Amino acid sequence: MPYNTSIFMSCLRSILLAILVLIAGVVIVPALAQQSVGASSKLPVPRFVSLRSDMVKVHRGPSKDHPVVWTFTRAGLPVEITAEFDNWRRIRDADGSEGWVSQGLLSRRRTGLVAPWEKAKTFDLMTRPGAGEVKARVESGVLVSLKTCDGVWCRITVNDVDGFMKQETLWGVYPNDKLAE
Questions:
Q1: Which of 12, 61, 62, 67 could, after both became Cys, cross-link 88 (CB 3.0–4.6 A)?
Q2: Domain match, 31 and 75 both
Q3: How many domains is the chain partitioned into structurally?
Q4: Taking the model in full, what pTM does it have?
Q5: Do residues 167 and 122 both lie within one domain?
Q6: Does 88 share its domain with 105?
Q7: Per-residue confidence band for 144, with pLDDT thresholds at 50, 70 and 90
Q8: Is 167 within 8 Å of 173 (Cβ atoms)?
């Protein structure tokens, strides 16, 4: 059977086009989703905020008519806003649990949790980014205040101690996110 070059080239073009479409779907669509804004706030969704109060009731849906599914009992915990509806925000905590809270119970103050996915592990708080000295060791799950982040390192405060921690060890800030004071 003779080799048909035009059929081969047509198949190769189709395969390359399918690969390009797949790459575009994997790379471009998530980037666009990351850049959406909330209909109510006009702020980016998703985004990190913190709890304003020691008592935050989380509802199954976006109103007080929906049942409370759990209650946060610590102000300052970081949560991720994943959706908005009027003055309600769907939030996700560090464990991945989601529910709805009134926007008035949230603060723009940025906080983080030290590697909540690790159990009983400590992380170095450095005097400066990179080659600094270890200033303190911070346990996983500890709540910290985020001051600045450059995409690799964050300047944080924990119990009045100020230092730098690798951004990848913090839940409450996205990878490569930059925060200014």
A1: 62
A2: no
A3: 3
A4: 0.79
A5: yes
A6: yes
A7: very high
A8: yes
Domain enclosing residue 157, as ranges: 112-179
Taking only the tens place, the pLDDT of each residue in 20-40 is 444 545 444 444 445 699 988
The whole-angstrom separation of Cα 127 and Cα 130 is 9
Q: Quick one: pLDDT band at residue 9, thresholds 50, 70, 90?
A: low
Structure tokens that stand for 25 in this block: 């779907």
Strands 78-85 and 88-92 turn out to be antiparallel
State yes or no: pLDDT of 17 exceeds 80: no
Angle 178-156-107 (CA atoms, 0-180°, nearest 5)? Answer: 70
Tell me which of 1 and 114 has the higher pLDDT: 114
How far is Cα 179 from Cα 148, in angstroms, rounded to an integer? 5
Angle at 126 between CA 124 and CA 127, to 5 degrees: 160
Average pLDDT over residues 149-178: 97
Which of 49, 72, 68 is CA-nearest to residue 60? 68
> How many CA atoms within 13 Å lie on the side-chain side of 75?
8
Q: Does one domain contain both 85 and 27? A: no
CA separation, residue 49 to residues 74, 142, 164, 165 (Å): 14, 17, 20, 19
